[in-house]
Structure formats: C-alpha cells, structure tokens
Design a protein that fits this description.
By secondary structure, this protein is of the alpha+beta class. The chain is 52% helix and 16% strand. It has a 4-stranded antiparallel beta sheet with strand order 2-3-1-4.
C-alpha cells in the first residue's frame, strides 16, 4: 500500500480569528446558496412527493423510458423518471394534479408497461410532513445544545458544536462517501 503522510501544522502561529475565518466563509457561501435557492423556488432544497404531494408509479418496461416518452404517455403532470438500478423498472413521479387511477389506466393502455406499484400523497399530508420535519430538526438541535452544555459546562464549546453541526447540514454541495471498489 502507498503511504500517505499529512504534514504537521503548527496551529500556535495562528490566532483564533484566523483559524475560524475559512469555516465562517464556507458557511456564509453555503447560506447564500440556500438563500438564493429559497428566493427562486420557495424552498431551500428540492422537495419530493413526501413533502409536496403527488403520485408515483413503479412500472416495468422492456425498453428504456425517457422523460419525453413518459410525458407523451401520461401528459404534462410528469415530474421525473428514474430507473431502478440494473433493472427494467422505472419510478415515474407526477405532480399533485394527477389521479392515480387515470395514471394506471394510461400505463396499461400504453402497451409494454406493467404497473408494479402505485401510490400518492395528498398536498395537505405533505405540508404536515414539512411542519413535522422542521419541529424534529428544532428538537434535535435543542437536545444537542443541552447535551453539549451538560458535557462541557461552558458556553463556547457548546455553541461551537451546534454551529459546526448546522454548518455541516447547510452545505448544499455534498460528495458521496461511498466506498470505492477494490
């Protein structure tokens, strides 16, 4: 195996303000990206059917299905088409204007499509999910704050832990940490 050594950095030559500058700039950029996304779309991140309401069909097809083909079959209510990994199955997502019975009928009439599973979420239930998720995040941060304060019994490390967690969550550009095949 190849040896990889990280050089030792002498942090004593930097002030605390210098050490915190780069993480704060990264946090500010992340919050800026989230703010612009919120201003453009009304939400800081793209919301799925669980939060907005809509319908979903899981179909099997012998030929690949593109979003254009799905729009031709089902109409303008198609939001996305995703292939299930290494299978001839596709998950077609629709906005909340589509009725599941009409979608199932259209899939059966299209020929070559077999409906494996269907489901829908009402917009009211989706908005309740949004509220519940926000309450859950708030409770999680409150619990984290209390636990950090109970462990350190001082304000500065406790608030640093909470800000670090918030900064980590707010980064809009994540890279996957899946293991590489060897």
């Amino acid at each position: 195996m190849v040896a990889f050594e990280v050089p030792e950095v002498d942090y004593t030559q930097y002030s605390n303000r210098q050490l915190i500058a780069i993480p704060l700039v990264v946090l500010a950029v992340a919050l800026g990206v989230l703010a612009v996304t919120f201003a453009m779309t009304g939400s800081p991140v793209a919301l799925g059917n669980d939060f907005t309401g809509g319908s979903e069909l899981k179909v099997q097809s012998s030929e690949p299905i593109s979003e254009q083909q799905a729009t031709g079959i089902f109409g303008d209510s198609v939001v996305s088409v995703q292939q299930v990994a290494n299978q001839n199955q596709y998950i077609i997502t629709f906005d909340n204007t589509a009725e599941i019975s009409d979608l199932t009928t259209a899939a059966e009439q299209a020929g070559g499509l077999t409906v494996l599973q269907s489901g829908s979420t009402s917009p009211v239930f989706g908005s309740q999910n949004q509220e519940l998720a926000l309450i859950g995040v708030g409770i999680a941060f409150l619990g984290m704050s209390l636990l950090a304060f109970a462990l350190f019994r001082t304000f500065v490390p406790s608030i640093a832990i909470v800000i670090s967690a918030f900064s980590d969550i707010s980064r809009p550009f994540r890279t996957s940490s899946s293991p590489s095949p060897s």
